[in-house]
Amino acid sequence: MTKIALVTGAGRGLGRNTALSIARHGGDVILTYRSSVDEAQAVVAEIQAMGRQAMAFQLDSSDVAAFAPFVERLRTALRETWQRETFDHLVNNAGHGEYAMIEGTTEAQFDGLVDVHFKGVFFLTQALLPLIADGGRIVNLSTGLTNRLYPGFSVYAAVKGAVEVLTEYMARELGSRGIAVNTVAPGAIETDFGGGLVRDTPEVNKQFADMIVLGRVGVPDDIGPMIASLLSEDNRWITAQRIEVSGGQGI
Where is each Ketoreductase domain found (predicted)? Predict the structure, then answer.
């Protein structure tokens, strides 16, 4: 049976690359996007061109009240498109970055990061649990910044640290259903994260590259295929792990 993956925030960046990589591995993909329907539909079209099924739903991952109606839309889509009641893999990728030193961080920035990266991950996963197949997989995205410090990302990294602990609890509590739960922690990647800080600021790019054993910052193609591989049957015995994909950042 074809595996179905739900990837949040998959209209661009790492989410987009992950969705496409899953399709290349033979999976069907349901993706969410927050605001850009055109970007999301472009990803859907790319996946369909591979001969896989895909669809996109609008979802603000910070809006817990939106999760219940989203689950009902998803349930209908599973029945009508796949003739199934469940999907197999959840990738909690949606997110954003805020670059701010501690003394300059606003309450709005703080709350925004918590709502999307921690509260949203917790309550969306909770809402989706009845639709995740036994023996399925959950991947939560974290960051190399939980272990390798870079001033200006204190709140972002702290929230991702909470996600790493949450991942272990999810793995423990869902293990009886055969659901494996892991964290993937990318290192510095050239995307529009944080306003494109790493991608578009040469001095920052070099600072991170100098920390990395392989001598360069990452690109989305370094992350998406790894997540797709983690979801494969070859990695069915991996759970409750934090897997850093950073080119050896900071060792």
Answer: 3-192
Angle in degrees, CA 130, 50, 92, rounded to 5: 35
For the segment 132-158, what is each residue's pLDDT rounded down to a tens digit? Answer: 999 999 999 999 999 989 899 999 999
Catalytic residue positions, numbered: 156
What is 4-245's CATH topology?
Rossmann fold (3.40.50)
pTM of the model: 0.96
Name the residue among 86, 87, 127 with its Cα closest to residue 7. Answer: 87
Give which of 214, 204, 231, 98 is closest to 158, Cα–Cα.
98
Among residues 106, 146, 138, which one has the least CA distance to residue 122? 138
Find the largest Cα–Cα distance for the chain.
53
